[in-house]
Automatic annotation (TrEMBL):
Transmembrane segments: none annotated. The keyword S-adenosyl-L-methionine does not apply. PANTHER family: AMINOALKYLPHOSPHONATE N-ACETYLTRANSFERASE-RELATED-RELATED. Gene3D superfamilies: 3.40.630.30. This is Probable ribosomal-protein-alanine acetyltransferase. Keywords: Acyltransferase, Transferase. The keyword Transferase applies. PROSITE patterns: GNAT. It comes from Blastopirellula marina DSM 3645. One of its GO terms (molecular function) is N-acetyltransferase activity. It holds the Pfam family Acetyltransf_1. InterPro entries: AcTrfase_RimI/Ard1, Acyl_CoA_acyltransferase, Bact_Acetyltransf, GNAT_dom. It comes from the Bacteria. Residues 1-140 form the N-acetyltransferase domain.
């Protein structure tokens, strides 16, 4: 993710969340040394993004969204697969993320991708008193499969 991606990323963010991040939130997060932004492109436009943090033993997804017009096209799954490919049994062996209790679509998506809810985080969000589910994905040995790619490029 680079600065010129921000306009499209912010459009996807606003279309995806009731309480979206602002540009300052993205910039503040991406200025951290352990924070990485990834965008998914299709037909030369950004159709999804992910921001994650590198920690010693895990990756932590801070923000993740796919353009609502491009959902159910395997884009989110490909972004998760790209992130999961960075795991290893010896170093970073898990991915963690939080999902709003009311965001059933995200819960079901991440569950389909192999995540499990491991705890409830009470009053997690600053903008509401809503709880979050802490979800975890653990490293798995890769399985060779042939899949068609909807994404022209994953940058990150």
């Amino acid at each position: 993710m680079i600065r010129r991606d921000m306009t499209e990323v912010l459009q996807i963010e606003r279309a995806s969340f009731e309480f979206p991040w602002g540009e300052d939130d993205f910039i503040q997060c991406l200025r951290q040394r352990n924070c990485i932004g990834m965008v998914a492109e299709h037909d030369e436009r950004i159709v999804g993004f992910m921001i994650y943090q590198l920690h010693r033993t895990r990756l932590h997804v801070m923000n993740f969204a796919v353009d609502p017009k491009c959902r159910r096209m395997n884009i989110g799954s490909q972004m998760i697969a790209k992130l999961a490919s960075k795991l290893s049994p010896h170093r970073r062996s898990q991915i963690l993320l939080e999902v709003r209790e009311t965001n059933l679509d995200a819960q079901l998506f991440f569950r389909k991708e192999g995540f499990k809810a491991i705890s409830v985080l009470r009053d997690f969000y600053e903008d509401t008193t809503e709880d979050a589910y802490l979800m975890q994905y653990r490293f798995q040995q890769p399985v060779e499969t042939e899949t068609g790619s909807q994404i022209a490029r994953l940058a990150g």
